[in-house]
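subagent[fold] <- orchestrator: predict structure for attached chain, return tokens only, no commentary.
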Amino acid sequence: MADLVPASFLTQANALSRKNLAYQRRNLWSNVRLIVIPLYLCVLLVSIQALFDAQVTNSPDNRCGCQCTDDQSGDGKCDKKSCGVAYSSQKQAMFCAFPNPPPLPPLLQIPRPKTPSASCTRLTGSCPVTVFVTGNNLSLGPALSRSLLTTSFMVNSSVSWLRNPAITVLGTTSEPDLTNYFDPGIHSNLPIFNIQPQCTPRTTFSFSTGQSPQKFKKVEVRCVQGLSLWRNNSIDVSHEILKGYHEDVINDVAAAYDLLDTDTNKFNVTIWYNSTSKTKLLERRVKLVRVPRSVNLISNAYLQYVNGPGTKILFEFIKEMPKVETLLRVDVASSIGPVFFTWVILLLFPVILNTLVYEKQQRLRIIMKMHGLGDGPYWMISYAYFLTISTLYIICLMMFGSLIGLKFFKLNDYSIQFIFYFIYINLQISIAFLVSSAFSKVKTSSVAAYIYVFGSGLLGVFLFQFLMEDSSFPRRWILVMEVYPGFSLYRGLYEFSEYALDKRDMGMKWEDFSDGGMDEVFYIMIVEWLVSLIAAYYLDKMSSSGKDPLFFLKNPFKFMPRHSLGSEVSVEMEKLDVAQEREKVEQLMLEPTTRYAIVCDNLKKMYQGRDGNQPKIAVHGLSLAVPSGECFGMLGPNGAGKTSFINMMTGLVKPTSGAAFVRGLDICKDMDRAYTSMGVCPQHDLLWETLTGREHLLFYGRLKNLKGSDLNQAVEESLKSVNLFRGGVGDKPAGKYSGGMKRRLSVAISLIGCPKVVYMDEPSTGLDPASRINLWTVIKRAKTNTAIILTTHSMEEAEFLCDRLGIFVDGRLQCIGNPKELKGRYGGSYVFTMTTSSDHEKDVEMLVKDVSPNAKKIYHIGGTQKFEIPKGEVRISEVFQAVEKAKSSFKVFAWGLADTTLEDVFIKVARTAQAFNVFS
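subagent[fold] -> orchestrator:
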């Protein structure tokens, strides 16, 4: 077959997309389950909403109260049911209709004593209430202090109780509620206090709140002394207030006034007042604050000072706007939406990250690259696949949420939502690519990903939202925090939630885009998306090329000493055949030729020592040239460096020094181009469990630029050649193959498309004898126009397939040549074996010495002895004659004479080299 042109970018992208489609068809239901997860979660929200409505919204405490007012029939059934404030508890009253809200007296908030005692109790009126006054004008301050409180409280039946609050100072120790409709200061059982400069002990009054919703309720009014005290400066006032707050003191502070630079022409005052509590449950529904009466007191005092004692502002009552009956309506989905939907969207992150790390862990990415798949097509198709899945996921989320009626989705503009989610999923995919470079195991990446998912949601609700709602927290730090992707997602969802909770039911529209900071979130995510995508691609290129990610920070002019490995002085004289191979390589480096597909020049690899161990030299200065049409076999014991050499030649690891060329392309600089003409059968089968054998071959055939009928024919021939065609075996998932079938498929993958260079690492491991012979025939037929480097432990395989052999020991090439040359060079002896009784072992030794004085015993156990007899000292006929003569003297159970095998050569070379290395 003629040389094939390397596959173009689009051809590679087409091959990968077809493979992914086939893979996804096998995992269709997994993808469907992933995409419909939003449906399950939205149904969960609806269920939570229904449970909340049943237990909370429809609870009697959360609606206007009703009572039975007519049961004339006496059968226990209510004939008439009346509802309203008059029939409601204090909790229920706030939900009732108030078409004509009642006027209520303005009250001053009076703090409760920390430790009431017999000497100071509000009930006896013996515990004063303090009001502090300070300012720059010493003469003005005391004058205003004297005018703050009225001097008397007269109960006159001709004056309604509505008149009294305007001319008296009433206060309460009850904290205000969310509304004045049912103020606890008026409607509770606690008394109202009249604050006066002087009180008669145990003075009490009462009046009727006739216009209150609960008609004719008697309210008890008790007198309490009010102390209006001057302080020289605001620091003293603050000290008194803090002292009264933290300590159990008698004089509690109800209010304080700093007159600042107030004079007869200018009224300028700062007011301290008692604020009410704000519970965590009602963070967004702050209770009322009783401030108006404090403002009225100082204003009246100033007017009296300027215009005389008769001047007053009559502050008679406070009254709220009318309202209709309301119900407690809580949109659970919108309330918990930020944290809940943060988790929902982030659930895609572990899926994407684990997929990328799985390809790295199983070395599927590198095996695709070895067969010609470029980085560009891989990134484009993988990114497009993840983007497609993520887009379908968020579309289903928005669609399901809208169909089941979640305001979070229905009210906010769909275009804003989609663009926000689309930008974020792109950012999420690029971050997954970036983070995947830090992991090599799926389990580790999965744990880290789920910590990120749930940690982002919890940090968002307990930290980010808290700081975001704190008006004192600098806004620039909010922007800095949004650089963290989880917080930028949370911020966007928070804005959607706020607009969905708006009582106007308007939702977020494009005209609101810049109001809540959503525009800032968009800009941050877009910039992060581009930066993380570039960074991910850069790190991927660095890891695949073996360069230091910070190589551009290195000083190019800094002197870099040569590695100690390069200056190593060898104490062993190279064998003649190895030296000749080195000389041939040096000549090829001067006069390059395309006839040699693989050329290695002084290639070395050393692994750095760890945990106190010494560095390990895996390959010592290997020089090798393999022409096209030759199968070169590498023999050697385990740990000799064979797999390290293959890994260097296939780009898995980078050589420490030296150079290697594949069809004239440097493996350190042009590995991506070298992959286009390369086939690899790794030591372990790297296959997709759900893809069939045919789909594997179609994918790798397309990467070799096979198309149409040529591709189909090549796949058919490959399946037939490795016995995966009959019975539809080639159309079964590779996960159902036996170990031998997987091995045959890996060999077929490495040979499809007639690559010019093929590396096979123990290709026949695990095969039965018949399959092994068939596979050898396939490999032998494929080497016609291909350079093959093969590692094996089978001497039979080496003799059958290899044109030349090289024996590796401790990273060094000990000898090189074809099998006959090696046997002739290292096996110039016969192996004589004889088995007798143990009594005649000495007789056997004497027999062998008579035939060959230089014979050497190499094996002895249980009466069986083996001897090496130099071929130059004996003829085969002499050995037969000696054995026949010996049979007449003692009994011979068995004997044999054999020529040296390749296995004998291998053992001899390996033992000699290892002994020399130990000695040296």
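orchestrator: received. Logging for downstream: The two ends are 51 Å apart (CA to CA). DSSP finds 32 helices and 24 strands in the chain.
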